[in-house]
Amino acid sequence: MEVYTPLKRIKGTLKQHNVTQSGISLGGRTALHVLARGSLTAIRYRDEILRPLVRPYAGVVGPGFLLMQDNARPHVAGVCQQFLQEEGIDAMDWPARSPDLNPIEHLWDIMSRSIHQRHVVPQTVQELEDALVQVWEEIPQETIRHLIRSMPRRCREVIQTRGGHTHY
Fold first, then answer.
1. Per-residue pLDDT at 124 exceeds 60
2. Per-residue model confidence as pLDDT tens digits over 95-106
3. How far apart are CA 110 and CA 86, in angstroms?
4. Under DSSP, is residue 66 helix (H, G, I), strand (E, B) or coil?
5. Going by C-beta distance under 8 Å and a sequence separation of 6 or more, which residues neighbour residue 6?
6. pLDDT mean over 141-165
7. What's residue 108's pLDDT?
8. Residue ranges of domains in the chain, CATH in brackets
9. Which residues are CB-contacts of 114 (< 8 A; sequence separation ≥ 6)?
10. Residue of 2, 8, 5 whose CA lies nearest to 124
11. Could you point out which of 15, 104, 112, 114 has its C-alpha 20 to 30 Å from the C-alpha of 134?
């Protein structure tokens, strides 16, 4: 599960909006989940993301499910690690200060560009949430598959550059 925090000008003031979470795999994706205002704490992550979204998605994917998440504090907090262990959900080791290769980052970019290119830009938080959900659902699954299948190439390039800049 990865986080996207859209920033938008509303009535001339730059405000940070609700956090969105979602998951992707070769065969599908979760719904885009928009969290109510407030910080994403470890407890919220466990109760609003891991338990209702990740656990059922892992069950659908099956035994090969591997959770990819970064080292954000809520992700690595003991309460979340304990939950994953109790549920038998394996998480990918994610080194500190690593380049963010998670393919979902490209999807956040696609979504951001799509919303900014609209003829009518969302003016309220609800309009932004609705636009994000619509754009998320319009992304072709083939785009997601292509990004996931690019992971070996991304990893090779990071290794070749010894963790330096890549074109990803």
1. yes
2. 766 666 788 888
3. 35
4. coil
5. 17, 20, 112, 115, 128, 132
6. 87
7. 87
8. 2-160 (3.30.420.10)
9. 135, 138
10. 8
11. 15
